[in-house]
Amino acid sequence: TVDTISTSRNDEKVRFLENDCNIFDGNWVWEESYPLYQSEDCIFLDEGFRCSENGMPDNFYTKWRWQPKDCNLPRFDAKHMLEKLRNQRVVFVGDSIGRNQWESLLCLLSSAVSDNSSIYEVNGSPITKHTGSLIIKFNDYNSTVEYYRASFLVLQSRPPARAPGNVKMTLKLDQMDWSSAKWKDADLLIFNSVGFLVPTTKLCVNVKALKCILSRFVALGEYNYSTICEDLRALILSIDRGCYFQEGGKINMMMDVETAFQKSIVTLVDWIGPEVNMSKTKIFFRTYSPVHFRGGDWKTGGSCHLETLPDLLSPQESLWNSFEYMTVIHVLSQLSNKSKARNMSLLNVTGMTSRRRDGHLSLYYLGPKVGPVSPHKQDCSHWCLPSVPDSWNELLYAILLKQELAQEKISKSTSQSVE
């Protein structure tokens, strides 16, 4: 019965809150009741993410649930989440994969709202791919769920005057993206900065640094040594060599990616200090979402359209030694004000996502009227919805529940001490 199911879910939530487990260590399990919503029921979903409507022949990719080893996650409760977000702003900042997660949350939340007209983009902008920002308001809850495109978090800019002729663009590592003033009053901030890490975009990177980064991602299951050279050659072809790193008015032509990424995280954390009210704002940094191109990349014929199941046999890979994780942890550990670090949480999706070779857009991203694209133009980085990003948001929901409980315990303890 409905009451029995509700009681079971409440018990599950209580057990999860009482347990101390690593929710990022687990496996994918088949869940017949999934997905949590249907793409055709979500009016806030970009056409490119509607794989089933665009002709993908199976829906197996929608049926997998993330199961931690040592505890059960509470099922995502959209009504409860909306109540938690009442009178609040949720802001996603990052690249197009961040947008993937943003649209997933919109679909999850809107599934609990019967009147879709009460949910709208505040500026009347359509939900189509573009590089600016979108603000969706849930009017009945006076809540907004927002997206700002800032792939590097720091400022991408034209080169300064008298820069060498081969410098076409710079990343100003000591300045936040121009849109940062719009983020700071958010109640929930979710960052990602994959721009430094994915060589299939136009990056500020040299070949030596790229080889270093790719060799580290071998450990995450993204490449194996039998194909690394072939993939490396293909990826190098896509680099925009006219982009360099800048600090102040000085361009550094030799800076490697690790150093630049670390400096950008320092800039982010330094910005958070004076600009963000940490007594009210919860901050998450979502880690890298692996791509799954085979035999090439976006521009050189890489494919993933034959992948229909997760990789369930490989051991769970850890993010502990990855470049991105260690860089963020190093920056936070060096902070003189440790309270800043305590208020930032990592949404560690890299290991779990590396197993999901299925679920990418592959051939099905141009809409139902166009149909599948050429096999040589596949998208093996973005995700179909519903799919993997829903699980990221389920983890986000679970962490928020944990944080809420911890805060309640602190408040209760403080109250008892005063008495």
Automatic annotation (TrEMBL):
GO terms under cellular component: Golgi apparatus; membrane
KW Transmembrane (keyword) present: yes
Annotated ranges, domain Trichome birefringence-like C-terminal: 73-201, 240-398
Membrane topology field: Single-pass membrane protein
GO molecular function: O-acetyltransferase activity
Ranges where the Trichome birefringence-like N-terminal domain occurs: 20-72
Subcellular location: Membrane
Pfam families, alphabetized: PC-Esterase, PMR5N
Keyword annotations: Membrane, Signal-anchor, Transmembrane, Transmembrane helix
Protein family (similarity comment): Belongs to the PC-esterase family. TBL subfamily.
Name of protein: Trichome birefringence-like N-terminal domain-containing protein
Organism this protein belongs to: Solanum verrucosum
